[in-house]
Amino acid sequence: MSLLVIGTVAFDAIETPFGKTDKIVGGAATFISLAASYFTKKINLVSVVGDDFPTDAIDMLKKRGVNTAGLQIKEGEKTFFWSGRYHNDMNSRDTLDTQLNVLATFDPEIPQEYQDCSFLMLGNLAPAVQHQVLDRLHTRPKLVVLDTMNFWMDIALPELTSLLKRVDVLTINDEEARQLSKEYSLVKAAQKILAMGPKYLIIKKGEHGALLFHGNEVFFAPALPLEEVFDPTGAGDTFAGGFVAHLAKTKDYSFENMKSAIILGSAMASFCVEKFGTQRLTEINMEEIKQRVQSFVSLVNFEIELV
Amino acid sequence: MSLLVIGTVAFDAIETPFGKTDKIVGGAATFISLAASYFTKKINLVSVVGDDFPTDAIDMLKKRGVNTAGLQIKEGEKTFFWSGRYHNDMNSRDTLDTQLNVLATFDPEIPQEYQDCSFLMLGNLAPAVQHQVLDRLHTRPKLVVLDTMNFWMDIALPELTSLLKRVDVLTINDEEARQLSKEYSLVKAAQKILAMGPKYLIIKKGEHGALLFHGNEVFFAPALPLEEVFDPTGAGDTFAGGFVAHLAKTKDYSFENMKSAIILGSAMASFCVEKFGTQRLTEINMEEIKQRVQSFVSLVNFEIELV
Lengths: 307, 307
Fold this sequence. Notes:
- Chain A has helices at 28-36, 55-63, 127-136, 150-155, 157-164, 174-181, 186-194, 235-250, 255-272, 286-300, and strands at residues 3-6, 10-16, 19-20, 24-26, 43-50, 66-74, 81-86, 93-99, 119-122, 143-147, 169-173, 200-204, 210-214, 217-221.
- Chain A is of the alpha/beta class and 307 residues long.
- In chain A, strands 6-5-1-9-10-11-12-13-14 form a nine-stranded mixed β-sheet, with helices on both faces.
C-alpha cells in the first residue's frame, strides 16, 4: 500500500553544544520519507524546493525508493531555510532564522499516480496546505496521520481545529497537547483532543518517550536512554515516518499494531539524533534497526507474578 | 527475611493546587513501611518522634505489621515537621517550613531483635546517621538500599560519598543524579555513579518513570499516566518501600527480579499520589495492587516481529 508524504524539504543550519553545521538538507518530509524508506518502497513525496536545492539530495531520496514526481522545483527561487540553536538540555531550542522562500506560496500538486494512496502522512505545514492535500485527493486514504506544532495553534487555530476532524492520528508533543487542550494532565488533555476529531493521539515527550491514546486505552513507548543526543532535529518527523511506514507495510492499523509502529518510530528516532541532520538515516541497515528494537524490548520487558 | 527501615516519621503540612492540609502524618520511613507492608510483615522500623506524635498513628503502623520497637518517643520534645507547597506542574515544590525538632539529635538505636535483618532500607536522612545504622549492625545485611537527596549533596558530600561505597542500591531523582555525577546525560551520569560504589542505581524521573542501571544493563519502568496527581509527597519513599519489600519477600535480588520490584514500587507510588499523605496507602488491598500492576503490563507490553 502506498504512502503519500507531504511536508517541507528544506535547508537547516544547526548549532548544538557539540558543534554546528552550515546549510544541510533537512525538512519534515525528508526525515519522514527517509525513515519510512526502511519499511516500504511505495513512498510518494509532495513538497517544494528552489533551484538551489542539490540534485544529489533528490537522487539520494530516489535511491531510497522515494517517488519525487510530486516534488516541485521552482526556478529562480530559494529553498525553505531554518536555523536554530539547541540549549544544553537538547529539549529546548531557539530559532535563529526562518526564510520561507518557496514555502510562502506552496501550492501542493498531487500527481495522478499518487491518487491511489492508502496512507497519508501530513507533515508539519500550514493547516491550510494540509487541508488542500486532503481536498485534492479523489478518495480519502485509509489512514491519515497529522503532525503539527504550537506555531499553528498560535496563528491558525480555526484551520487546525477543522483539520482535526479530517484525520485519524494526531502526533504532537506534550507542551502542544497542553496548549491545544488547555489541560495540564496529559490524560485529561488526551481525552479532550480525542473529542476534537482524531481517533488516535500520539503525545511525544522527547527523551521521556511517547504515549498513544485511543478511547480509554493507553500505550507508552520509552525513548532509548542514550549517552549523547547529538542533534534532535527531525527526531519527531523520523518517529512519524517509522510509525506510518510500519502501518503501511503491514496494512494493519489496529491499536495493537500501532504499538509496534510506535516502537519502530522510536527506534528510528533514536538513530536520527546520533548525528547531524539526516546523516544516520542514510547509513543504517535493517540489522541495526532489529538490534535497536531488541534494545527496546530489553528496556521495558518484565515478568511479574503476584501471589 | 526481615527488612530494617530507617528514616523520618514526621508531620507534614502540604499545599497543592487541589487543597491544603493541616499537620498530617508523613515522613520517609512511614511511607516506606506502609508500602512495604503489602508485601512483607517483617518490617522493623528505626526512627524518632516527639510526644506530640499521635498514638493511633503508631497503632496504625503496628496494625500493618510494622515492628515499632526501634521507634524512639522523646518525652517533652516535638516531632520533625515539614511544610511545602507544590507548583502547578507537581514536579517542583517550595519548602515553606522545616522544624527539625527531635531529628536534630537523632541517635538511631537498633534493638537486638533487629540485628538479623537481611534487607536494609536507609530512607532519606543525614548521611552521618545512615552511616551509624550500618556501623551498629553486627553483620552487614544482604542488600542495602540508600535513598538520599540534593540537600545532602550540598552540605554533606564527603559523608555521602563514603556512604555510597557501603550500599548496594542507590535511589535518587534525575536532577540529583546530574548533580552527583556532574553529567547531564543520565546514561553517563549512571556510569559515573555506579563507579562510586553502588552496584545498582535507580534514577527516579517522577511522572516520567524510573530507570534501573546495573553494569551495562538498563531497565525502564514508566509512571502510570494519571488523570490527576493529587499530592506527590512520599511518592519516592513509597516507590522505595514497594521495591525493597518485593526483594525481601521473594528473597531474590537479581537484576531480573529488581525489574519486577521497580514495577511494584511504581504501582505503589501511583496509589500514593491519589490522596493527601499516607491515606491511600492505608486503604488499598492486594486486588487493587494486582490490577494496578496489570495496568503497567498493558501500558508497555508490545509484540513486534521484523521481517
